[in-house]
Each structure stands twice: as structure tokens, then as C-alpha cells.
Write a structure and sequence with these properties.
The chain has two domains: 4-129, N-terminal domain of MutM-like DNA repair proteins (Alpha-Beta Barrel); 142-265, Helicase, Ruva Protein, domain 3, CATH 1.10.8.50. Helices cover 25% and strands 20% of the residues. It contains seven helices and ten strands. It has helices spanning 4-18, 41-45, 126-129, 142-149, 156-160, 171-181, 194-213; strands at residues 23-28, 54-56, 59-64, 67-72, 78-82, 92-98, 103-107, 114-119, 254-258, 261-265. The longest helix is centred in the C-terminal third of the chain and has 20 residues, at 194-213. It is elongated. 38% of the residues are buried. The chain binds a DNA duplex through residues 1-3, 6, 32, 34, 58, 72-76, 91, 108-113, 127, 151-154, 158, 161, 163, 170-172, 217, 219-220, 222, 259-260, 262.
Length: 271
Amino acid sequence: MPELPEVETTRRGIEPHVCGQRIVRVTVRQPQLRWPVPADLDSLLQGQLIEQVQRRAKYLLLPFTHGTLIMHLGMSGSLRIVEAQHPLAKHDHVDIELSSGRVLRLHDPRRFGAMLWHPAGDAMHPLLAELGPEPLDDEFDGAYLFARSRGRSAPVKAFLMDGHIVVGVGNIYANEALFSAGIRPDRAAGKVSRARFDALADEVKRVLARSIEQGGTTLRDFVGGDGNPGYFKQQLLVYGRGGQPCHQCGRVLDEIRLGQRSTVFCRHCQR
DNA sequence: ATAATCACCTGCTCGC
DNA sequence: TGCGAGCAGGTGATTA
């Protein structure tokens, strides 16, 4: 479910409901997520005041004076604010009860998500330490992509989805940005020109910003923190459209697999 | 260092 | 209608 726009939509959705709240209790029903949820999470968080909800890449962070709660939604996770009496659903793994009486609830069928604790004072958490720049920051641009890609033979799509290069570009938006920039996803990253990387960086920013504005892409049952669906899916140009006509030239879109991820492109419009 | 593959897990769709 | 195969938004770990 969540790509960066969905995570940012979640952050914005829950922020007004959790900021200024104290944590009353944490209940972990299923600790087996991508990594085990710490057994002492309740004692670590009980009574703590939530002051802000941060996002780094696709991680959501709740910073406290004694440490940071790190959350990731994986492939199928969602984080919602519900009323205390809201019925429990299958795969509702963690509840963070707030002083308002409401609950921040983590739901994640596939359990690729994570909820981790990182004590203050230590070095940056290993999961966050090696990450590339945020795609919407100014330091992410064509010059940066060009410099980092020299000599690399991996497909430009894999390069773009590598979190060490830039964070937050998942399969949907990689497909979309490469189409809009006119670059074949299977071209070696090291053979893409500076001018084309300029276009690619611009398209990455544009497609992500536009999707965030519209509340993320609705796939299956994604809902943001406030429970409302996103509205971006209808605007996808290539993702999920293999075999259908290209919106630009009308030819049939190709669908291949690149790094075991579904990859859709137009061999006429993308070179 | 880089590239490619595997792994984690549930649910859904497809073809037989 | 049932059943196995394959695939799904992510990404760390492992292997060459």
C-alpha cells in the first residue's frame, strides 16, 4: 500500500490527533512484524507527551526526550485514529491509547511493517543512517542523479528505487516518473544523460507532490490517517496499465519484470 | 562497491 | 465451487 505520498498523507492525517496527547497505554497483540516489536514498549511510552510526527523516507517517527518510536507501514500497513470502542479487526496489531480517549491503531495484514524503539543519545538508527536525500528536497536534482549514476550498469528504474540514492520512490512512482521523463526503465543508469536526469528529477518531484496533494494513491483499501481514501489512482499513466494503449501515442504499453517488480512502459515514448 | 536474488507474510485473482 | 500458482504498494539480508 504505502508509497511516500501515502505515508505523508498518513502523517498529516494523524498529526492533529496525536500532537499534544499523552500516551496512556500501548497494547501489542502481534509483536511479530518485520522485526519483533519491543516487549517493553508500553513501559517506555506510558505517560509520554507526543509533540510531533516526523517523516523520514517512508518511516514515521515519534520523537521523545528519551528516544524515538520508529514506524514503517511496509507493503500493507496503515495507521489510523479510531475511537476507543472501535471494534478490533483482524491484523490490528498495535494500539497506542491517547489521553483524548482515542487510539492510534496499526493495522498490517502482511506484517512487513515495523515498530521499533531507538534510545536517545546513540548514533542515528542504522535503518535511517544510510538513506539518500528526500526526493522533494532541493539537493535532489538532475546533477545529483547524474553524478551518482556514472559507471552503474543497473537499470535506471532499480537505481531510482534504491533508498541509498534517493528515498521514497516506490514501484508506482518509479514507473510513472520514468514514463513522464521519456526514459526506458531498463536503460543502464550510467548511460542516461544529464539532460534526461534533469527531466527525471523534475518528474519525480512533480508526481510525488501531486499525489501528496491528492491524498495518495488508492490501491486496494488504502486509507489515510483520517480514514479517507486518496484520489490519485485515476491519474496513473502507466502503472497497472500493461497491454493498454499509451495515453501519449496510443501504442500498446509493454509490461516486463525488472528486479522482480512489475514494470510498465511505452517503447515508443520512452528511450 | 555493485548487482542480483531471496526472504518476510497474508490475501486476492486467475486459470483449470 | 475448489485449489494451486502467481502476484501485490517495501526493503534488509545474503550471495556472487
